[in-house]
Amino acid sequence: MRAQLDDDDALVAEVVSLFLEDYPQRVRAMDAALAAGDAAGVRAAAHALKGSVAAIAARPAAEAARSLEQACRDGDAAAMRTGALNLSEALEELASALRAYQAGLR
User: Fold this and answer.
1) Which domain holds residue 55?
2) First to last CA, the chain
3) Contact, 68 vs 83, CB < 8 A?
4) I want to staple 90 with a disulfide (CB 3.0 to 4.6 A). Which of 1, 12, 38, 64 is the partner?
5) Does residue 4 form part of some domain?
6) Would 76 be classed as within a structural domain?
7) What is residue 1's DSSP assignment?
8) Where are the alpha helices (DSSP H) in 1-106?
9) Are 30 and 49 in contact, with CB atoms under 8 Å apart?
């Protein structure tokens, strides 16, 4: 991520902060759409999350989001549930690492 942002510490810190503020809302939207059986809503949330994690070069989370998008396109409800769980877990791991990174900046 640092290389993508020209090793600009202030910009990296801002991107990390924005992600940490934004991702919980997107996960809630994904979970609500999943509970409602709204594949299009799940796919939209997964797509938005994929863009967010791609911006910070978080490949495991981006791959989990991509897999969830595919499950939504396929209409596979079981794969959507599994994919949403996998994405949520990847995001929590990412958020934990980013919080540790933020703590190191202070």
Assistant:
1) 9-105
2) 19
3) yes
4) 64
5) no
6) yes
7) -
8) 9-35, 39-55, 59-74, 77-105
9) yes
Question: What pLDDT is stored for residue 74 in this prediction?
Answer: 96
Q: Is the dihedral of CA 11, 13, 19, 22 positive or negative?
A: negative
**DSSP label of 106:** -
Contact 57, 12 (CB under 8 A): no
| Number of domain units in the chain | 1
Residue 18 has pLDDT above 70, yes or no: yes
The predicted pLDDT at position 98 comes to 93
Q: Which residue has the tokens 């503020």?
A: 21
* pLDDT score, position 81: 96
Backbone torsions φ then ψ of 90, nearest 5 degrees: -65, -40
64, two tokens? 């989990």
Reported as a single tens digit per residue, the pLDDT across 26-74 is 999 999 999 999 999 999 999 999 999 988 889 999 999 999 999 999 9
Within a domain: 24: yes
Here the CATH number for the domain that contains residue 33 is 1.20.120.160
**Is residue 88 situated within a structural domain?**
yes
Structure token digits, residue 87? 């994405």
- When pLDDT is averaged across residues 81-91 and rounded to a whole number, the result is 97
